[in-house]
Specification:
By secondary structure, the protein is an alpha/beta fold. The protein has helices spanning 12-23, 85-112, 134-154, 180-187, 198-210, 226-229; strands spanning 3-7, 27-32, 44-48, 67-70, 116-121, 158-165, 219-222. It has a single domain (3-229), classed as NAD(P)-binding Rossmann-like Domain (Rossmann fold, 3-Layer(aba) Sandwich). Strands 3-2-1-4-5-6-7 form a seven-stranded parallel beta sheet, sandwiched between helices. Bound molecules: NADP nicotinamide-adenine-dinucleotide phosphate (NAP).
Length: 230
C-alpha cells in the first residue's frame, strides 16, 4: 500500500486519481481549497490547503510518503499585448511557487520512503507554440525546468516526472468548453479528435506512482497527438 498526497483533489485530474488510488488499495492524503472533496473512504484523509496562504497541511502528515501529486494550474489565454506583469506573476505563483513551497513541506516524508515519486502537470503549450498562451506557457515551461533539475538532484531516491496534457474536460477548462461549437472546434484540432478526460491523465499518473521505478526527469505528452502529429 502506497501513501500518496494529492494537492488539489477536489476536481478534475486530482479527484479522478484519488478515486483510482483508493480503489486499488492505497492511502490518500487529499487537499481542497475552494471546493470540498465529495467522497469518503476509510483510506482517505482530507484537509484544506491554499497554496498562496497555507504554511502547513491541516492533517498530520505520515512519517513516510511514497508519492506527491501537485494539481493546481492555470489557463489564461490572452494576446500578448493584453497581458500585464500581474498575469505572469499570478500564473507563476500557482504553477511554480506553490509547488516549491509544498514540496519543501513534504521533502522529509518523501525521503523516508525507499522510492518516492513526484508528479506535476505542465501543458502541451509549454513546448508547442499556440496563440495567446504566452503567460501560461511561461510558467509551465518553468515548472518543466524545475522538475528536470530536481530529478537530477534527487535521483535515485525521489523520482520527478511531468505529464503535459492538451485540453482536458474539467473545472479549469469549462470556460473554453461551454458550447457545442467550442467543443467540436477544439476537439478537431487533435489528430485523435476528442477532448481529453481526467481519466486519460489520471490513469498514467496512477501507473507512474504505483508501478514505475526506472523513469525520472520525463515530460510525457498526453495530448491526442497534437504536439507531434499536426
Ligand atoms: N484542464 C485542462 O485543460 C488542462 C490542460 C493542460 C494542463 N492542465 C493542468 O493539469 C493540472 C490539473 O488540472 P485540472 O484540469 O484537473 O484542474 P481542476 O479541475 O481545476 O483542479 C485543480 C485542483 O487544484 C486545486 N487548486 C486550485 N487552486 C488552488 C490553490 N490556490 N490552492 C490550493 N489548491 C488549489 C483545486 O482546488 P479547489 O477547486 O478546491 O479550489 C482543484 O482541486 C493543472 O496543473 C493544469 O494546469 C490542465
Amino acid at each position: 500500500m502506497k501513501e500518496v498526497l494529492i494537492l488539489g483533489a477536489s476536481s478534475g485530474i486530482g479527484l479522478d486519481l484519488t478515486n483510482k488510488l483508493l480503489n486499488s488499495g492505497h492511502r490518500v492524503f487529499a487537499t481542497y481549497c475552494k471546493n470540498n472533496i465529495m467522497i469518503s473512504h476509510p483510506n482517505l484523509v482530507t484537509g484544506f490547503y491554499d497554496i498562496q496562504n497555507s504554511n502547513t497541511f491541516d492533517f498530520e502528515l505520515p512519517e513516510k510518503l511514497d508519492g506527491f501529486v501537485y494539481c493546481p494550474g492555470t489557463i489564461n489565454l490572452k494576446p500578448f499585448r493584453g497581458l500585464k506583469q500581474d498575469d505572469f506573476e499570478l500564473e507563476f505563483q500557482v504553477n511554480v511557487v506553490g509547488f516549491i513551497k509544498s514540496l519543501q513541506l513534504l521533502l522529509k516524508p518523501l525521503k523516508k520512503s525507499n522510492l518516492s515519486s513526484v508528479i506535476g502537470f505542465s501543458s502541451v503549450c509549454a513546448q508547442s507554440g499556440f496563440n495567446f498562451h504566452a503567460s501560461t506557457a511561461t510558467s509551465k515551461a518553468a515548472l518543466e525546468g524545475l522538475f528536470t533539475s530536481l530529478a537530477r538532484e534527487y535521483a535515485p531516491k525521489i523520482l520527478f516526472n511531468i505529464i503535459a496534457p492538451s485540453i482536458i474536460e474539467s473545472r479549469l477548462s469549462e470556460h473554453l468548453l461551454n458550447t457545442k461549437d467550442k467543443v467540436e472546434r477544439i476537439a478537431s484540432t487533435h489528430p485523435i479528435p476528442r477532448i481529453g478526460q481526467p481519466d486519460d491523465i489520471a490513469s498514467l499518473a496512477q501507473y507512474i506512482l504505483t508501478e514505475s521505478s526506472w523513469m525520472t526527469g520525463q515530460i510525457i505528452k498526453v495530448d491526442g497527438g497534437k504536439s507531434r502529429l499536426l
